[in-house]
Amino acid sequence: MRFGVVGSGFSGAVIGRGLAEAGHDVTVFDSRPHVAGNCHTERDAETGVMVHMYGPHIFHTSDERVWEYVNRYGEMVPYDHRVKTTVGGKVYSLPISLHTINQLFDTALTPDEARDRIAQEADESIGEPANFEEQALRFIGRTLYEAFFYGYTRKQWGVHPRQLPASVLKRLPVRFTYADSYFSHPHQAIPRDGYTAIVERILDHERIQVRLSHHFVAADRTPFDHVVWTGPLDEWFGHEHGRLGYRTLDFEPYRADGDSLGCPVMNFGDYEVPYTRITEHKNFAPWESHERTICFKEYSRACSEGDIPYYPIRLADDRALLDRYLDAARSERGVTFVGRLGTYRYLDMDVTIGEALAAVDGILAAVASSDAIPAFFVDPA
Q1: 277 is catalytic
Q2: What is the mean pLDDT, run by run of 10 residues, along the chain of 381 residues?
Q3: Is 204 a residue of the active site?
Q4: 48, 157, 252, 277: most buried, per Cβ within 10 A?
């Protein structure tokens, strides 16, 4: 069969490679002049630093199949990610840990004492939290919420935390130890040569053709027996029901001699500070040495036509619109929707790769049994 794969990020690359290795001809399209999507990395000409061009990407996983897969295409160097935040003119450790709690309350609490303190802070009058703010107030109280979540969340999402679902905060842990590693997965790493080099190797197969700077639309599907679409779900349908909500990011770079932050990521929790964070990219490759540095101030805003969509908003008010697109997708023939944009979900890299590998398995099984290839291999609802 001839497959058209739209998007050369991890979803498209992994699926394209799997189909090519099974003997199918694959053409991978990308509207940008490079592969790897938002994971794209390249050397900064002035400083020599490897830059994550669309914001930092830290690879972390407990999925052994995914971990083995990425190591097949590049050297993954162990990397322990740590994040700090500036609030009210002071620097704190994230995620919230015993250290953060003692910093904020100017105490020296033990783990059990800290649990008791947070329990006293929590608003137990809130039964089942209906939104982000209530979730925070119910479980960590107003002091921690206002210091570390209120301002940052408003900037990141562009709405009041009361407009966000409670589930957003469930992904943010509170630790009663001094462990300050941002992630807890057994495998945490960054590729020595950057993510783009890994994706290029994945796509390096005799049955794969890559066409960059090509904006594929549904009408381009004619030469293919099946299309794998990793672009925005609503774009496939020409936004006929309206535009789904996404957030996009703007990056303001600056370069300097020496070091600037002293850490990879510094969040800024105060709402009055217009950017959400500053990232210093040489700290994502601590095995390298650079005399100069490059940093990026990061601003979050609503995604408009022509912008790069980074992550779906998925507010409750968008539910009806999303359902219309999901119904349309399930009725579509000859196309499979995958990935962060194609399924309108926030996905970490390891989940993206895992779902792409599962999609390859599903597509090949359908082809072998002469069944129709499904529109989705996961339920994006």
Answers
A1: yes
A2: 98 98 98 97 98 98 98 98 97 95 97 96 92 92 96 95 84 83 96 98 98 95 97 96 95 97 97 98 97 98 93 81 96 96 95 98 97 95 80
A3: no
A4: 277
